[in-house]
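Work package 3, deliverable 3.1, input record:
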Amino acid sequence: MSKREDLGKYEPLSYFQLMEVSLRELLVEKGVVSEQAVRTALEDVRGRTPERGARVVARAWCDPEYKARLLENGTRAVESLGLDVPALKLVVVENTPQVHNVIVCTLCSCYPRMLLGIPPEWYKSRNYRSRVVREPRSVLAEFGTKIAKRVQIRVHDSTADMRYLVLPMRPKGTERWSEERLASLVTRDCMIGVSLPKRPR
Amino acid sequence: MPQVTDRSGSAARAQYSSELPAEPVRYAPGEQVRVRLTAPLGHIRTPYYIRGCNGTIERLCGAFPNPEELAQQRSGLPAQPLYRVRFLQKDVWPAYRGSPADVIEVEIFQHWLEPA
């Protein structure tokens, strides 16, 4: 008998996968939620990507008046771009030549999901959470981000109801760029504060 | 130099206001505070590393239901004012090796703060 190579690799469900399936099927069976509602919620989650945050940053780079509103009340400012951000209380922190900001949640994994989607694994790791608060410069260096000692580092621990987004500095050499093109420079990691937007060549 | 505390108009001064009944606001931006050094049981949103540290009120975020009460299936009302408090890293970690100007900011509920 020849070995089938076209079946893919099947592995048993992990603990959490099994728990998710069991819980979901029970909730549907008992009529608490519908399959449709679960699917819609998942689509919403998958539809939220860092491109949403990048749009906000690019607008702030192009429009000083918008930037002022964003720093004053982040939620209202992102809603004015037509972004739906239920329950988000957003604090936007601005990088300047004097200040570099970086975000963490030491207690769990609070993250501006409405603007950046699902947090990366490392953001939830004990390593990042415990070290970035006490040795931010070393952790940033591990991400390839070297911050000069004359620049103040501000670590933001989102321990309660606020969610944070870093507004990076606009790279030099992009003066004539359109908002859409600028947005392409803004990565998820720039908005967490562990990375900087790349300068165009 | 700490600013004079304004005990009125809390909602208007908060970054995010809410309609919930709330505790009166006790601290104003610029004021020096200390985080209570205590270890009650329960769902506490004040990290251990910051307890007992001295810092400065950076802003009033708003007032939110007390998470310690919410975790016990209670209403969490009256809502507790929530502040961003700024600490010098060298005060938090005695062996801190970055710049002496580096800071860490933490959200702390009012009932965890006392005047410094």
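Chain A has eleven helices and four strands.
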